[in-house]
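U., I forgot to send this yesterday:
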Amino acid sequence: MAENDLGKIWYLKKINLLEPLTKEQMDYLASHCAMQEYKPKEIIYHPKKGQNLIFFLKKGLVRLYRLDPNGKEYTLALLGQGESFGALASFSEKLQESPSESQDEENQNPEFAQALEPTLVCFIPKELFFEMTKESPLLHLRISKMLGLRLIEVSMLVEEMAFKSVIQRVASLLLRLDKKFGKEIKGERVISLSLTHYDLSTMIGATREATTVALDKLKKLEAIEIRRKRIILKNSELLKEIQNGF
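Result:
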């Protein structure tokens, strides 16, 4: 086995989705995947490019988003190390269709993927990866579970946009980011992500200006503090109360 493949295997073993794979399957995956680095704000794929690939995030931060008819961005998910993305959504449909129903799915997905930090990904053509799911029911089960959870997250966002104020949505977002990316540093809950106010606004369906006003209010209430692009949660209980409209 090539030394480069050994390095890929080391990374791939850290991908949550791939835990059910056998050693032989992991070796096969490593021999067929390629690695690519992306700079902050660089597009990884868009509706006209890269839609037939499965990506595994080795390091960095990736934003999945879509555009509305007016060109406004709506973030669907924020992904960290060990997560997977790309043409996974087509698998459940693929299993149900007959060969005669199969069609070119290029350009059908309106999703964009963008690196927000220096990012390293491994990718493989979806058809090769799909063949592996036929041999591993657990892998397919994990894909279905992951897609289901992401659908729930999007549904929650839509509900919040319809019924909650901007400051409630910001509080809810910060609590979610803390749960997924937050760390305990010197007794404080810290979210250390390269996110601008605009990035945050696309996650809650608000304008950048309204998001900035909400963040300023949370700082005045001493619920949060922002230091050098780090968001410190000073009072998580207060954020929960604001999130719920109390």
